[in-house]
Here is the input.
Amino acid sequence: MSDSSGTAGRPDTVVPAIELRGISKSFGHVQANKDISMRVMPGTIHGIIGENGAGKSTLMSILYGFYKADTGEILVGGEETEIPDSQAAIAAGIGMVFQHFKLVENFTVLENVILGAEDGTRLKPSLARARSLLTELAREYELNVDPDERIEDLSVGHQQRVEILKALYRHADILILDEPTGVLTPSEADHLFRILKGLRDEGKTIILITHKLREIMDVTDTVSVMRRGEMTATVKTSNTNPQELAELMVGRKVLLRVDKKSAEPGRKVLEIEDLRVVDDDGVERLKGIDLELRQGEILGIAGVAGNGQSELLQVLGGCRRATGRIRLNGEGIDPADHALDGQVWRERGVSHVPEDRQREGLILDFFAWENVAFGYHHAPEYQKSRWLMDNAAIRRESGKKMERFDVRPPIPELAARNFSGGNQQKIVLAREIERDPDVLLVGQPTRGVDIGAIEFIHQRIVELRDRGKAILLLSVELDEILSLADRIAVMFDGRIMGERMPDQTSEHELGLLMAGITDTASAA
Amino acid sequence: MDFLTLLQVLDTTVRLATPLLFACLAGLVCERAGIFDIGLEGKMLASAFFSAAVAAISGSVWIGLLAGVTASMALAGVHGLASITFRGNQLISGVAINFLASGLTVLIAQDWFGQGGRTPSLSGGARFNEIKLPFADLLSGLPYIGQSYAELFSGHSILVYVGFLTVPLTWWVIFRTRFGLRLRAAGENPEAVDTAGVNVIRLRYTAIAICGLLCGLAGVYLATGLQAGFVKEMSSGRGFIALAALIFAKWRPWYALFSCLLFGFFQALSFRPDVVKAVTSLDVPGQLLDALPYILTVVILAGFVGKAIPPRAGGEPYVKEN
Amino acid sequence: LAEPALMYDLGGKFDKSFNEAAFNGAQRWAEETGNSYREIEVTAEAQRVQFATRMAEAGFNPVVVLGFANASTLEEVAPKYPDTSFVLVDMVVDLPNVRSVVFQEHEGSYLVGMLAAMATESNTIGFIGGMDIPLIRHFGCGYAQGAKAVNPEITVIANMTGTTPAAWNDPVKGGELTKAQISQGADVIYAAAGGTGVGVLQAAADADVLSIGVDSNQNHLHPGQVLTSMLKRVDNAVYNAFSDGPGLDAGIVSMGLSDDGVGYALDEHNAPLVSAEMKAAVDDARERIISGEIEVASYYTNDSCPAHDF
Amino acid sequence: MTVLPKWADAILIPLLSILISFVISGLVILYLGLNPFEALRLMVTGALGSSYGWGYTLYYTTNFIFTGLCAAIAFHARLFNIGGEGQATLGGLGAALVCLAIPWPHWTLALPAALIGGALFGAAWAFIPAWLQARRGSHIVITTIMFNYIAAALMVYLLVEFLKPEGSMDPATRRFGPGAELPLFSDIFGLVGIPFSSSAPANISFFIALLACLLFWLLVWRTRLGYEIRAYGHSETAAGYAGISPARMIIVAMIVSGALAGCMAINSVMATERLVLNSVEGAGFIGLAVALMGRSHPVGVILAALLFGFLYQGGGELALWANIPRELIILIQGLVILFTGALDNMVRMPLERIFLMIRRPGRQGA
Ligand SMILES: Nc1ncnc2c1ncn2[C@@H]1O[C@H](COP(=O)(O)OP(=O)(O)OP(=O)(O)O)[C@@H](O)[C@H]1O
Ligand SMILES: Nc1ncnc2c1ncn2[C@@H]1O[C@H](COP(=O)(O)OP(=O)(O)OP(=O)(O)O)[C@@H](O)[C@H]1O
Ligand SMILES: [Mg+2]
Ligand SMILES: [Mg+2]
Here is the structure.
């Protein structure tokens, strides 16, 4: 729609905090943004939604001076402003929290916050000043993080707080967040939104990119929809509903919740007893896990990130050694056995969709087709002879799989790097699910993925279940677990706090369990 | 081995460690900023030649020093152009610079002096002479402390003292100043620096300039401090040893000092078959003695030094759009 | 009349010793006769045969090749060009059109060894070689014998610079080795190490001890501080070859003390250092060697040295 | 996202880069008071103008192909093997020992034996640093540098003390004997009636090198091992997920790397019929440049090796006929490496803009 509706219902006398006019940007042949215009009113939370690769991040990166627009102009508070680099953006009072955080892993929080905003040549004074300011901000917006922790030792949630602190430390009035909740737990997300609302009430302006319509409905005042690099609509949140937004975004009807018939669990496939993991620093990550997984069911593991779910997945995926007893299809397996790597598990019919597609699931510089064989490159059907792999076969196979999983574009000869996250995720799922495994381990299947793709991915997982396969689902998205799982186990501090049936529990109860509070009387 | 002999060995150690130290710190600054540099060797050589040549012509070692450092920084500039501006392969660029240096130096030397890639030998004000610290002679009498003072600490060329002072200086700059913070960040995650509103390109060029400067000093010391003139290829692999020392030092200034001294010490030992024999009481064949520094390095590396993790963004040109 | 040609060894034209001496000889010939000659530096093993062949092909004559490593070269090339005269310096090849010039370096070294032994006050003298190869041991061996002849009790310290080609161009290491030897008491040091020697002479001069140059006369490098230089008149070998021109008579030419093929340098730069009796003693020894009275053992004869254990 | 068509990236850019480096070299030559075009003519005719020239060019090329592949396989595993020099040195020793061990009746028997000997020794010399890296985390760059020096020392020791014939002043082994003589190009092409200079050293090992390139390609892009090596090189974390053992990858890649360096011995030692000091002559380091310039792909390696072979031989001829100091050749090599290897984007960036202008009105969007 035209950007006159950009001022949805507001008197035109108010000067927009941000106004974009005819922004276009292309990378090589890809036009990421086409003639985009939009207005963001001061003191509002303005949502932006759109499919993977729609151009949201690019647009915001331009606003923050990370990329340079090919054409178009930017007005900040009515003033036309040149933003050639982030320095200018910061000067104009714009702060941005990128989807993939821009933090120095082995620096402390404090160092990260002052980086680029130091006063004076020597660090000491800057650090001192920052420390006091941080404690203030922490009090003001419940943004508490230990200033002396190293980033790599912080949970993503805390890392994100550092990013926000960075922006506030630079006196940002306009705060951009790109998919901030993609990696957060519900409680962390709620916390974040409390902070954002607080900031808005302070008169700050916030631009929020997300794939989650619920968040849009909850916190935004206005929402803009992007599609294929264009701004297709801007509406007042109160005048719209998720269905409408979903359609605007994907261009077709979308089911917002998974429809699945109830599960008929079969025999036990995977039995885990007293599984324990001690990491390299001698910290015990898993403190005796007992689980069993049956055919034809989806077991969801809920939990705040960093409570051992990842380790559990890694052990079952063969990326990590552990002690304890595991029985797969009745036969015992020693998890401490070093010969027991990913290859072995795969041969025994356990497929694994890792939590981090970009660092684990894919080789970004490999072609899509090479990635489709990744982990299964020893599979007989991929071999031409005793020595040589049958690349032609792999190409053919992967072409088909990508078609079936509606990977866009379905071109096996494209490097994985050049697919959007949503599509990267589909490639991983295609690889693992199409093996038709007895057990599927899935970590964060829809992180950073747009709703169209989410719907698709969920359907695939349910299909697999209905074919009588066992699925272990690991997600920080409570509602994903609630809507997908047939049985929910909650993990806290390396232990299973309890199991619940999705229809007999509530987010509240699960939330308590995830916080390690077992007495669930309060939940009833 | 008596104390005096020990002092002599250590004395040699100090002299041999100094050029390594300069080069090592040069590499440290550069690689901390995310630019790998295997062109230390070449820069050292170029600086060695130009310092000696200009000192010979002008008769002033200081003008020579200026010329040497300039030459080294010019080559560093080429490395910057290749690896920062044009996002080329930093390793190739380094290799190329080594070739350029060993070719250019001799050609120009031949063209200027016609002595076959050698400069006239320097004397008097055209070279750095050893400076005696105050009371050196006075104290040399009293055992141990006095001897050490006179033998070991006194009587080096000014550049040696500069070199050792550069260690704390580098440490301070890298870990205690704004510039250092940004420098390290640029080597770990340039995007963080960029989005924090700092110009990564300028930052890395500065680092490369410093690298050029220090490498320059290494060369100057070789040609005008340790020696009195340039001979073709006179850096003879020290740039690579410095590189090894840098990794050995895990990209830390004080460790760099230690590892360079270690290399120097092993070399010094290999010059003293008599000492080796006295200590180990078995006479080692010359060739083995010659390989000793390298063997010991490997042993120590494997035995005591753990994994060395280079700056995360090292070697990668900073590209945000492609 | 065909131009003569000169092929340097891997060390390169300006190695401050062997090859450079040859270059000087060629230059002298060119200046005196006004004729020109062709020269080429070998940079890779494979180029030895290549360049020798090319020179012969192109009709250069005689073709002088330097260095023992070229023996195999001529064995291969010379027979193919019977009308071309070849001269091999430092090694013997028995072919009708090859003149092999060998030097008695050990005799020359013997003499400078004597001078060293007479000049030293600490009864400790040093020898610094380039790479630890037989040729260098050959030099050192003669040196040690000469010294021991003067004073059987004398200590001879020997170090080699390295094991890579860098050993010939590392004055810094040469300098440090010198300082190391000095701290072991050496006060006369003989350098047979090409470009590295520059560092040796320098360090010795700085420490105010005597040094001995090699191959060509290096006394002038540090007047009054270089005791002498062991002359190896490669320049004469080249000069003669060029003068004799095409069809020069083949066979073995051994350049020793008698024909001043080797010797020690005495000029205004080191005159004050070499006293009359020193000179007398050395010249006497020279005569006795020529007459065969003194037998200087060569390292080559059985790969070992009676006077020093390398 | 790539903008340039493959051909432009693969051919146009390198050619332009080489052009630039030659122009600059020309200026230097001019400065030295010589005629650049004459110099170029000498180099081209000298290196490519006759079967003789080709014979030498390809001889050097053979060495560089082996060392280039040595560096390349390591690069695929993201290892910087700076030790090609030492591994090739040891390879030379291995090959020599094999050739000296028995009086070989015929080269067809000697060649494979020497090949294996060289490969084994080279691999062994690479294995130690690899093992130290994999098990003790000792940085491979340091250890391989150190092992270059150790190899050199070992070589001098063995040659002077044991391998050189009694009484010889040349620190080199005796000749290997007729049974170990490799057929030269003249012999090979002679069979099919093509005349080829018999004084050029190019020999059958060139074809072995080409074969090695083919096998290299198969290994890296067609076998599971190669797949795993590349995967490990691109992402250690992902490799772990897929069950690929880092330690195994490091060791295997380095062993192959060392073996390839060792294979160079058949050309640099066996073909020259005796082992001399420093038979490698820096080919190990050139190999790094070759691999980097060849983007670690065998075809690229062959082309880069050919380029360096050309520079070596052409440079030699230039030195021979124009009385040019050999350092000029080193300088030219440096310029070529710089512009083709490191400053290639200086050419690519403008080209991309041009191509975009041509294509832009074409396809749109992702
Ligand atoms: N640095 C880049 N280089 C090349 N192409 C890029 C780059 N960044 C983005 N693109 C392309 O621009 C398009 C828009 O990317 P963008 O990141 O803006 O999408 P997005 O809306 O943020 O997707 P998502 O919802 O997954 O975050 C994509 O098709 C992508 O291929
Ligand atoms: N350097 C790049 N070169 C090519 N394409 C890129 C580059 N950086 C990003 N892209 C593309 O831009 C699009 C969006 O980039 P982004 O980093 O937002 O990933 P994404 O789609 O958001 O995935 P996720 O949200 O799961 O991380 C993706 O298609 C990605 O492949
Ligand atoms: Mg995005
Ligand atoms: Mg995204």
